Amino acid sequence: MTDVRMEYALAADGTLARAGTARKGQGHTYCCLDCGERLKLRRGDVRAAHFSHLSESGCSGEGVIHRAAKLELVRALTERERPFTLEVPCSWPGCPCTVPQPFDRMLGAYTQAVAEYTWTTWQGETVRFDVATLLHGNLQVGLEVYHAHRVPPEKTRLALPCWAEVHALPLLADPYRLVMVKDDVPVNPQFEAFRFDPQLAPLIDERTFERYHAQGSGRWVEEDRGDYGDVHLDEFSYYVCFEHTLERERLHRILWDHMLAHPRPAPEPAPAPPPDPLEDSLRRQRRTAEFAADFYHARGLHPDAFPGLILRAGRCPHCRDVGVFVMSTFVPHHLRFQGLLSLTHDRKGLINHCASCRQVVSRKDLAQRDGVTLPGEVVAAALQVRAAQP
């Protein structure tokens, strides 16, 4: 088989070497990223600089780009010399553009970046990420590098934490610019018809505009939290390029003008029953329990960790993000909380950490602020219901 030319190789110190900048001569050895064999650096005036095997080899070099991109991403995440940008594909049907988003807040705090990381969910499923960031050994963000093979669909259906699938070649050009792989989403026939014929406004429901979702491959934390802790992930309106944002507003204005000109007859209002404080409180408790179940399910916690605990959902006093905090001072399974709980310096008590900003949150501050207190058994039951959903 004819030997292939490669632009990237593995240097003796384990770092990524590029043919255009690698050093030649004794003391500088390079290995193939695909098969591990020794390579020779060839650089002259006629041919472009490249690496090749010392002798004829059966190596195809198919995995070189993929492995080189992983090494470069681990290096950038470790050094973190400048801010990261995540380019999310535009959600408008058929648009090839991307929408740049700051990614450092989504990455959060971490102490280590590793390649080929294996993570096990509390259901016992094993997941491998090409690159992962860890906070004191606990998984924070997983990244998949795409060059020739996509993430299998069965993997994306698991209860994964924050993760994204990014292209390898743009990453090698600039590891701080992560371009997400685009997924297809179901087409909304009603919206598609209205795009090309605004005269169909009488037949369109305004909520049609919100029935598309972001088309990036992954689940990343760019959330809009309502007054009751409701979380809406990856909405269509968040990830639309400038041109189609204007187009969306134009269509929305046509629809809104039609609704103002032809208001729907209001139904006869039914007499409102007197408010029941107990029912209102129970409804709020149920909504909060479902939010807490989603919050802990995304972090891989098992229902067995919650019986006997007192939890409180509220806003972090530092970053104002909504989270769930443990009010109990004794937690038998505190190590399962993956960085949300840690021991004090004297190792005599437990303290809460905010899931967003990682700051220490005082139980006294939480008790004095607006929030909802839940018994751990209720959250465990909601987690079991959440886990049973497809």
Quick gist of this model?
This protein has about 400 residues and is α+β, with helices and mostly antiparallel strands. It has helices at about 65-80, 105, 155, 170-175, 190-195, 240-260, 275-295, 365-370, 375-390; strands spanning about 10, 15-20, 30, 40, 50-55, 85-90, 100, 110-120, 125-135, 140-145, 165, 175-180, 220, 225, 230-235, 310-315, 320-325, 340-345, 350-355, 360, 370-375. A hairpin with a 2-residue loop joins β9 (about 125-135) and β10.
Describe the model.
The chain has 390 residues and is an alpha+beta fold. It folds into 3 domains: 8-62, no CATH class; 64-262, no CATH class; 280-388, no CATH class. Helix content is 25%, strand content 25%. It has 9 helices and 21 strands. It has helices spanning 64-79, 104-107, 153-156, 168-173, 189-196, 242-261, 277-297, 363-368, 376-388, and strands spanning 8-11, 16-18, 30-31, 38-42, 50-53, 85-89, 98-102, 112-120, 126-135, 138-146, 163-167, 177-179, 218-219, 223-225, 231-233, 310-315, 322-326, 341-343, 350-353, 360-361, 371-375. The strands form 6 sheets. A 5-stranded antiparallel β-sheet has the order 2-1-3-4-5, covered by helices on one side. A hairpin with an 8-residue loop joins strand 6 (85-89) and strand 7. Helix 7 (277-297) packs across helix 9. The longest helix is centred in the C-terminal third of the chain and has 21 residues, at 277-297. It is flat and about 90 Å long.
